[in-house]
Structures are given as C-alpha cells and as structure tokens.
C-alpha cells in the first residue's frame, strides 16, 4: 500500500472569538484530505492574528488565545500557536507559514505525534541524506540543529504544511493592495490551500477568474461542507453586546470566560473603528478598509 503524505493544517484569522465553526473547519478539512487516500493529517494549528492587524472590534490576543485554548481542550489534534500574536507587529500570512514550517523541526515539537518509530527513523534517514544534523534521534520527535529545512520544500515522506481557510478568505486575495501577488503565489505553489465552502462565496469561480490560482489549482483543495453552518464571530459579538444568548455556538468554557472578563462590549466594538487594516496600510495609499 502506498504510504500517505503527512499534512499539517494551519489556519490564520482573528478568532474574535473562536467559534464552533472555526473548529469544524479543521474536522471537515481532515476528512476531505483523508478521503483522497493520499494524505494523513497529523496536526492542526490555529494562529490568532496580532493585535496590530487593525480590524474593527479586535480584542487583545491575550484573550483570543486564552479562549482558543479553552475551546481546543476537547481536541486531541488541534492546538493554538501564539507565535504570530506575540510578534511586535502584524505578520504576513506567508511568513507565519514559513515560521511554522521551520519550527516543526525543532526538538520537542509534537509534529510527529501519531507516527510510529519506524516512520520516525525513516524521517531521520531522509534528513541525514539532506545533510542535516539530527540530534536526539530516538526521542519521540526529530530535532534538527542549525538547519533551514522548510516544509514548503516538498521532500518525500516529510509533512506538508497547508493553509486552511474559509471561502471568504480566498475571496480577499483579489482585494486590491491587501495581498502581495508573490505571497499568494508562494502560498499556493509552495504550501497549498484547503478552502471550506461558506455561504455567499463561490471559490471555484474565484479560481477561474484568477490566472495565478488557476495555474496552481492542483494545490488548492475546495471542500464542500454539506452541513452548512453560518456562525460568524461578528454576529456572535453583536449578540453578546445586546445581551443575547450564544449558547451552542461556542463552547460553554469560552462563554464563561467572556462573561468573567466582560470582553465584548460596545466599547470593545469601537476598537480600531475607521482604521485601515495593517496590510492595506503597508501595501497601499488611500484604499478603503474591508467591510468583513
Ligand atoms: N461559518 C464559516 N464557514 C466557513 N469558514 C469560516 C466560517 N467562519 C469562519 N470561517 C473561516 O475561519 C477563518 C477565521 O475567520 P475569522 O476569525 O474571520 O472568523 P469569522 O467568523 O469570519 O469572523 P468575522 O465575522 O469577525 O470576520 C477564516 O478562514 C474564515 O473564512
Ligand atoms: N498580505 C497578507 O498576508 C494578508 C492580508 C490580509 C489578511 N491576512 C491574514 O488573513 C487573516 C484574515 O483574518 P480575518 O478574516 O479575521 O480578517 C489574518 O490572519 C490576516 O493576518 C494576510
Ligand atoms: Zn472573517
């Protein structure tokens, strides 16, 4: 039997707050990749955006991370990575991907959870063949010293890192000055994209409309979620501000955290009001902010 390619899924976003649907994205994507018969998803990573992103109503990453950690306590394969939120400023998504691909080879990283010793030894042999110095080879994960091996360099047997998103995220690729063309190319060419359907977005049409996305569509997985779920974090925040129930849309632990710290208020909703998103500030002059 042909062995499957290990995959790590990375989702970037505000997660303001994390919703049940954010976690569903990972489950739906994993099922889809497994059903292809070619992939084995070994880990999911959620990377909440930096506070300097500039999005209206964005509360502190400290709270967004705490809520995501509480929500993911029930998952045995998805974790939160605070790296992006801890940088001094907002970071381009492609750099978050590069950062995670590099980190995955540091000693102690749980990237290889779920792989048995024989598979680990195979990885070790592959890394050695690439001239990389392997430390503590018999530990449960591989440690690589002074190496610069990135998961965007597809090496047979090594995990591939893919960006996971909803269809509205893919649609933002065509917003003028929001994304650099070379970043989009690197994401779809070197990493790959798993995109889950969302009402109001037609991702196959965006792909057809874009020469770049069409060129790399073999690396873009469009996944249809048949059990449609239109939870949106913005709607959750407005419900909370109006004192309405959000039970069964978010885990109870997250609802309790929001109440305890009084996170979403009319005042928090006014944060960054009228500001340009940081990527628009960096890449443009005089462009109106996204309404999302
Ligand atoms: N209901 C949904 N269906 C499909 N994808 C979703 C859904 N909700 C969120 N996503 C995806 O999750 C990622 C993170 O999204 P984000 O944090 O912006 O949540 P959101 O619910 O869209 O929040 P907001 O309403 O504040 O924009 C994005 O890739 C987004 O497309
Ligand atoms: N040029 C870029 O790399 C770029 C541009 C816009 C948004 N993003 C990212 O996409 C995500 C969008 O999140 P929201 O859907 O919550 O706005 C964030 O993680 C943000 O950092 C990246
Ligand atoms: Zn959104």
From TrEMBL:
UniProt source species: Willisornis vidua (Xingu scale-backed antbird)
Coiled coil, from the record: none
Protein name, entry field: Nicotinamide-nucleotide adenylyltransferase
Superkingdom as given in the UniProt entry: Eukaryota
InterPro entries per the UniProt record, alphabetical: Cyt_trans-like, Euk_NMN_adenylyltrnsfrase, NadD/NMNAT, NMNAT_euk, Rossmann-like_a/b/a_fold
Classification via SUPFAM superfamilies: Nucleotidylyl transferase (SSF52374)
CDD domains: NMNAT_Eukarya
EC annotation from Swiss-Prot or TrEMBL: 2.7.7.1, 2.7.7.18
Residue span(s) of domain Cytidyltransferase-like: 10-238
Pfam families recorded: CTP_transf_like (PF01467)
Family: Belongs to the eukaryotic NMN adenylyltransferase family.
Keyword Nucleotide-binding: yes
PANTHER family (UniProt xref): NICOTINAMIDE MONONUCLEOTIDE ADENYLYLTRANSFERASE, NICOTINAMIDE_NICOTINIC ACID MONONUCLEOTIDE ADENYLYLTRANSFERASE 3
């Amino acid at each position: 039997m042909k062995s499957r390619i290990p995959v790590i899924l990375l989702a970037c976003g505000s997660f303001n707050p994390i919703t049940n649907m954010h976690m569903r994205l990972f489950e739906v994507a994993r099922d889809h990749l497994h059903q292809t018969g070619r992939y084995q998803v070994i880990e999911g990573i959620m990377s909440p955006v930096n506070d300097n992103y500039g999005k209206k109503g964005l509360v502190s990453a400290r709270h967004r991370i705490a809520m995501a950690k509480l929500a993911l306590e029930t998952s045995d394969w998805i974790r939160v990575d605070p790296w992006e939120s801890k940088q001094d400023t907002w970071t381009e998504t492609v750099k978050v991907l590069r950062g995670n691909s590099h980190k995955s080879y540091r000693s102690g990283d749980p990237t290889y959870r779920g792989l048995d010793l024989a598979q680990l030894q195979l990885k070790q042999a592959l890394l050695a063949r690439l001239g990389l110095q392997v430390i503590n080879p018999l530990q449960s994960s591989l440690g690589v010293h002074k190496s610069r091996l990135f998961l965007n360099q597809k090496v047979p047997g090594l995990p591939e890192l893919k960006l996971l998103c909803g269809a509205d995220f893919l649609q933002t690729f065509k917003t003028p000055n929001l994304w650099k063309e070379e970043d989009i190319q690197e994401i779809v060419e070197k990493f790959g994209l798993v995109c889950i359907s969302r009402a109001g977005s037609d991702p196959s049409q965006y792909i057809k409309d874009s020469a770049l996305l069409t060129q790399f569509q073999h690396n873009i997985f469009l996944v249809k979620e048949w059990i449609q779920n239109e939870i949106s974090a913005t709607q959750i925040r407005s419900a909370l501000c109006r004192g309405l129930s959000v039970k069964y849309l978010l885990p109870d632990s997250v609802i309790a955290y929001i109440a305890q710290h009084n996170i979403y208020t009319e005042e928090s909703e006014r944060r960054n009001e009228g500001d340009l998103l940081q990527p628009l500030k960096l890449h443009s002059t005089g462009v109106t902010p996204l309404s999302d």
